[in-house]
Request: fold
Amino acid sequence: MKAFMDENFVLHNATAEHLYHQYAKDLPIIDYHCHLSPQEIYENTQFENITQVWLYGDHYKWRAMRANGVEEKYVTGDASDYDKFLAWARTVPQLIGNPLYHWTHLELKRYFGVEESLNESTAPSIWKKVNEQLTSGDWNVRDFIVNSGVEVVCTTDDPTDSLAYHQKIADDPSFQVKVLPSYRPDKGLEINQDGFQDWVKELEAAANLSITQFTDLLQALQQRIDFFHEHGGRVSDHALNTVVYEEATEEEVAVIFAKAWNGEKVSEQEEKQYKSYLLTFLGKAYHEKGWVMQYHMNAHRNNNQRMFEKIGPDTGFDSMNDQLLAQSLVRLLDSLERSDSLPKTILYSLNPRDNVTIATIIGSFQGGGIPGKIQLGTAWWFNDTRLGMINQMETLADIGVFSQFVGMLTDSRSFLSYTRHEYFRRIMCNLVGEWVENGEYPNDEETLAKIVRDISYYNAKEYFPF
Reply:
């Protein structure tokens, strides 16, 4: 029997052990998509206790706690931080087979030197040990980033954001990690959602120009792309819960925008035309800047209306969507390819059923002498598990060029989530080790070392123009 989470955790063969410890373990991290707060990074926030750094905003843990019968008071309610921590400690032993069990203990081990497993009986001593370190000043926000070996952090930012904290971080010579904005214009695409007009007014203010017609909107979005670029932005991101594509002229879309600007709801067909034209416009703008474009697809958000009204979005009530995406996605990508304006693109679906489809689609749009120009993105959100990662990597290897994969990201609001890169690297090395040990790939150490190092770090370093 192997020891619990020892140095060879999830490394099940000698080749995997060698590849991980010799070539993957100590490489830096490029976290090219996350939801960390640039303000907290700039202010180097000090947390008072582990609940603040661990449970505030972590909807992964919240979902598990609810499923374990924990009352909402101890999840997002007004219970004390210690009582919330204790509720999580009671939940953790029930999570056998869940990556949350592994993440929890990796975070306790790597950052705070806690070797015992978390449960109700060990909770008081772990609470005390971790909080002493947090309040000592040894583990402020920047310490988690630096001590994890992070080189680049890409936050997620609305086009209306001032990027003031990004600029302050860039001006601070004491902090060498690049903290860069990512351009996420989702609110500008959701023309039928409440708040669209308010968002356009915010865009007016940010771009310092009047928006009265569609061409003004395009000008403002372009101006903000230029602004993000000046502040180091080299990545965009889009939450395309449903992928659509309908051809439309600028004149047609101008009429649709005018209707929405006047407070009218547009038809489903008109909404598709508006989104399609705008996504094509934005894709061309990203291509001109040399940016990487990301599409996060097939999420079904805010399923529980009662809880949405009570505690809002991003609180653990989302799921996979099962909308078909192939036809619309191909047409959307081809609308950019036709004018040779398709940027480097990473495609993620929350539904793992789509992995094979996407893996074949990306093969239709590779080219330009760019290795892995179009990527099947790493296992995302509900797929960010051992089996989910293996499924994504095996699919890419089956159909594409696995060695050009740009690897892992955190997609997290937690400063402790960098241990997920370790988790990913271990799983990836084990997969490669299995292929070698099964005689499916030669035991060529030089080539294997390069593949492992590239997927862990160097592919992302080359792919992103940071």
User: Anything to note?
Assistant: The domain at 14-41+151-463 is CATH 3.20.20.140 (TIM Barrel). Strands lie at 29-31, 150-154, 178-180, 182-183, 235-240, 292-297, 299-300, 319-320, 344-349, 374-376. The chain has a mean pLDDT of 97. The chain has two domains: 14-41+151-463, 46-139.
